[in-house]
Amino acid sequence: MAIAAVESPEPINFRPRRLGHVNLWVGDVKKNTEFYNKVLGFHLEATEPGIKGSFLGNGNTHHDVGTVEITRGEDRLGRDGQVLIPKDMSGRTGLFHLGWEMENEKVLVDAIFRLKKTDQPIGFFADHQISHSIYIPDPDGNLNEFYADFLKDWRSMFQGEMELITGVWNPGEKPAHSDVRYDPKPRLYGVADAPLHPKYITHAAFTVADFETSYRFYSEVAGLKPIHVDAKRTYATFASGIGRYDLAIFEARKGEKVGLHHAGFELESEAALAASKAALKKQGVKIEKEVDDGSKWSFFLLDPDKTRWEFFVDRKRDHGAIVKAAAAERAYLA
User: Nearest 5 degrees, angle CA 70-CA 75-CA 79?
Assistant: First the structure.
């Protein structure tokens, strides 16, 4: 998929404040929900049976992780009766979309108006009632949701088993709010007896088909700030509006699969990481890989569909040191 040739005199630059969530296509929504709840330690906030979805978090926001069962040839309708998830949207498990949290709706709508002056492809617009969103694909077809919270108290409606809540949003139809509606000081919680107690979703790492087009998308369209770009321009890391590392892209090697490599969650401390490792071992949960160096201490787990998650504690993060590793190891170091 070709990236936009930006015709506007100014870049689109959504400039999200942070990576807010990762939503996945899963083979069995019940099985995956149980894994994210009982093993990874995310509280089940809400389910939406009409779209076969569940939404889990730890208090940061309405959800840190979303799971939606693959379509298997059936359309799923939104609350307005329009097709929300087309029957051919996904027949395979993996990434559905990254969710990027915006400062407010006015910032989001202003970026949408800039985008409409270009040929950047648009996926769709959605009114989730708790938030308003635009979904746009990157050059490899990975969906990115840019959303602004609409309700200050998302728990007032987003909990338990819900009726269909999502419909179509028409940005600009009503005045966009300019106040902050995300919770600036969320109270974190989780699942007390789970092996893991993650704090924040922090970053996603992708392998990409073409470094330059992906770099341009994430810097000029998404509006993320480059932190480090290697001299040969084969990988880059980016920060969001609050200055936190949120994304890494690596040019795929010959024969390597393009797409999400992993997404990461920060843990409270090295003591917490060690305790989590011991608890996982006791439960018979296999750790795929561990990284223990001067930059970070982390381990990687695979969910029932083999989507990879990293749980880590930062030491002295060094994005430039990644280049010293073997090509097959680099994405694990991001």
Answer: 110
